[in-house]
Amino acid sequence: MGDNKGPVEGCFQLMGGAFANAGTASSELKIVLTNLGVPQDITRRAAIAAFEAEMNVIIHAIAGTLHYEITPERIHIDITDMGPGIEDIELAMREGYSTAPDWVREMGWGAGMGLPNIRKNADTFKIDSVPGEGTTLEIDIFLSGGRNADNK
Amino acid sequence: MELGKVVELLGGTVVVSKKDGAFDITAVCTTDMMSDVLRFARRGELLVTSLNQPQVIRTAEIADIPVVVVVLGKKIGKEMIEMAEKMSITLLSTSLPMFTVCGMLYAKGLKSCVNGR
User: Fold this and answer.
1) Residue-number span of the structural domain to which B16 is assigned
2) Domain for residue B101, yes or no?
3) Cβ of B51 and A30 within 8 Å?
């Protein structure tokens, strides 16, 4: 992220159902942002958004990838999965709507807050999904000039 | 409220102690749903939960929550302890139920993570 350096990038493979490692990608992103000196509130927003997206892949998909790119202007995160896809994105964006099975809820997930939480913490949010194929999510968190999330 | 006072108040056990853990806890998030932690908790708060899964620790680390209290004397497994050690999260255990823990903390002046209510 330095003046003469290119973007800082990373990519993680995510496996559906792999709860033991769930969140590893987001934790590593958080460490990278902290080491780059990104302000705590922005780091926290990026980590939360990435974590929710990562958990969606672990819970719902067969597999996926989480890729991030950090430039002086923004943190870009894209998550692509091979999963069931989302039939009704508008419905999925509502707080409390969830298709997670009971065993996932018993582990503390599946409250139907994932996508709303991601959108809340991101400055840009784009989701595309094909039922039966998978979902792609792209978000940006601006390093300056972005809105302030109220859950710092 | 300092960590030692929280432990004393709840009759709790310190399962994992963060080495540089000097806390001044002013607010509490109480839930078993991890997305609620990510949505409502604020940096530096105390998390009270009955969930004894390692994912609780991961969630606390992502959300900058330094202290987790597991209620009802739930058995805390090796994986959760190791994750708390790795992520420098202080982990407490108490045999008290969630309602009682929240009542005791509220009576001592701590507030909810949701708008301080």
Assistant:
1) 3-111
2) yes
3) no
Q: How many residues does this entry show for chain A?
A: 152
- Please, what's the largest Cα pairwise distance for chain A? 50
Higher pLDDT, A8 or A149: A8
Q: Is residue B85 part of a domain?
A: yes
Confirm whether B117 is domain-assigned: no
User: Which pLDDT does position B72 carry in this prediction?
Assistant: 97
A111:B79 CB<8 A: no
Which is more confidently placed, A144 or B49?
A: B49
pLDDT of A74 higher than 50: yes
List residues of chain B with CB under 8 Å from any CB of chain A. 32-36, 38-43, 49, 51, 53-56, 58-59, 61-64, 79, 87
**Most distant pair of Cα atoms in chain B: their distance:** 35
pLDDT confidence of residue A6: 82
Residue B63 pLDDT > 60: yes
* CATH code of B75's domain: 3.40.1390.20
List the strands of the sheet with A124-130, edge to edge. Answer: A8-15, A63-70, A74-82, A134-142, A124-130
Judged by CB atoms within 8 Å, which residues 77-96 of A form the interface with B? none
